[in-house]
Amino acid sequence: MLYVVITYLWASILLYLLLGGADFGAGIIELFTSQKNKQVTRKTLYSAIGPIWEANHMWLIIAIVILFVGFPVIYSTMSVNLHIPLTAMLIGIIARGTAFTFRHYDAVVDDMQHLYNTIFAVSSFTTPLFLGIIAGSAVSGHIDPQAGSFLDAYIFSWLHWFSVTVGLFTVSICGFLASVYLIGETNVEHERLRFAHKAQFFNIAAVVCGALVFAAAWFEHIPLFDWVFGSWTGRIAILSATLSLIWMWTLLYQGKISLLRPLAGFQVTMILLTTTFRHFPNIVILKGGGYLSLTEHAGQEKTIEALAWALLLGSILILPALFYLIYSFQKKPIGYEGQAH
Amino acid sequence: MNDFIAARSQMALSLGFHIIFSCIGMVMPFFMAVAHYYYLKTGQIVYKNVTKAWSKGVAIFFATGAVSGTVLSFELGLLWPEFMKHAGPIFGMPFSLEGTAFFIEAIALGFFLYGWDRFNPWFHWFTGVVVGVSGLASGILVVAANAWMNSPAGFEYLNGQYLHIDPIAAMFNEAWFSQALHMTIAAFAATGFAVAGVHALMILRGNNVLFHTKSFTIAAVFGCAAALVQPLSGDISAKDVAIRQPAKLAAMEAHFHTEKSASLIVGGIPNEAEKKVDFAIKLPGFLSFLAHGDFKAEVTGLDRIPEENHPPVAVTHYAFQIMVGMGMAMMLVSALYFVASWKKRKWLREPWLLKLFALATPLGFIAVEAGWTVTEVGRQPWIIYGVMRTADAVTPMPGIAYSFYLFTAIYASLAAFVVFMLYRQIRMVGRLYDVRD
Questions:
Q1: pTM for this one?
Q2: ipTM of this predicted structure
Q3: Do A299 and B428 touch (CB under 8 A)?
Q4: Contact predicate B153/B170, CB 8 Å
């Protein structure tokens, strides 16, 4: 049963990265779009994610609930030592979620839109940045539950090159996912081209940030290279991700777009797989070589069992409805503008 | 401000903020479903307009409630890591089910908000009902988790260890039913009064009268029905608290001395130094009756409870008085409304009744906030009643005061935004919603 719970935890982190990530990315694209194209981008964006918008962010809640019910020591350790980046991420979530809703539901369209748009775009950048920082910090070996000073316990636990570069890498991945997603959402040729350019930009950014992550890891003695290339699973995953990336770009230049999204999703899945596989089940690596493990620091058996059943039951209810929602809004009626009535 | 007080203030602020949005988010869908139903049955366009206007409000409140709820799921750990380390596996069951309910609510809301003219009308209507039902389920589950803090169950506490955890028994703790019932009815009463009040004001101003009258009627019927039955659930709660948490009941009533035929205290200023209540109205025997159903029964006072386990008496007492006072006022308005509906239909067209409703707009939410204050402050100094002290659960991180100031600023501006947004929605009713298409 423990492995059922762990699978759900991993899957919800992955889905949050893919769906929530594409959603963050849409805001990041807005941030990197010239003033004259912003309006069109916004419209495409809204028709693409409007109906499933709330659902995309539920994965984070599922992941956090699994963590605090099933792995309370891990949850509380991260909550204490990563208090500051978690708070920063929360502020991003508040700002982003409300700004997104306000700009579409404000009954009067006036200058306030600028404010909503700015808040939305900026927090779309900062939220995944801090999510990445949190993820990077968890495995960086900088968290020290025994630390004496404020700086060591609450600042240097997360403020170092490795986690910051992981944060930037996360941001570029989100931008990449969103651009690829949006290519399929518009029928206008030059729009499509614009999103393809964006995808290219974020792809390059991701490669650059990825290189920086490796550099920072080397610099800070984090065995990232071993995690990624130290096992056949990692090597095969990275190889297949790279090949699928080449395939994706070939398809894009040929104008075939039907496979783009699954390919981009596959690449991100492979990245998450390689970075979590090798040190599994250790999810938090502490200073001095200690770790918090999903198998050793799990809750008592009855808790895990109840949690697993709750998750299984939840899936039976959620997944068909979610698929039907996505399916229903994939087919757009003629003249559909994507606005809520 | 010391860190412990800051952490408690931040938690209180976050919950106090979230509770308003979650109440509205879980009750409004039912109002919408009624309006929507009338539209589908009668074809009167005004009902469709009402449904659509309300759904905009729901979208705003749901989004704000969703983010403030997400924040809470992190704040539990950020502020009370020691509590979550032990409590998470025990009282987590309702949270994991709540995840499902909340998820379904988000999915159904997607269908509902974007589904006009896309689906079979009754399927579309049904998705609206699902929003309400799953929202209600979320609310009940979260309250069940809170009830566990008042009435810990499903584990054995031996030598500082939490053993033999049974998450199902923890979820169905002794307090869950009375708390969930009281909170659910409160959500209906508070939302009903708030919505009815706003529409009443618009009718008084003579704007879009038909539109606002239909809206007013739906909200008022829900709100008034809930306000009238609420005292019954309050009675169940009081009797339950009297047995389980005598310290809380004693603080609510500022009942310093254990006695038989205890008096119910109305108003007054608790004088904790001299252990008496100044300027209070006393109804002899009524406290015994309310707590135990017998005018002669003995009611435990604060004197039987060790000093270090006393909750703050004044805050709990005032909050309780406010809650009951608001509840009484709402009951009175509700009684008048139902008399008007059944016997004196001409009252419904007279401004005084509408004015009464307009004045009563905030009463329900004041009562909700006061009620939460009673249950949370009345549980102090415990975070898990009788097992773990709140002071032992707080994060070791210093400087929480700054976090509190930051969140205060955020929630204040967010509240201002939502009010601003609603004001604009209401102002635009004539142009956007009250239309014939």
A1: 0.90
A2: 0.87
A3: no
A4: yes
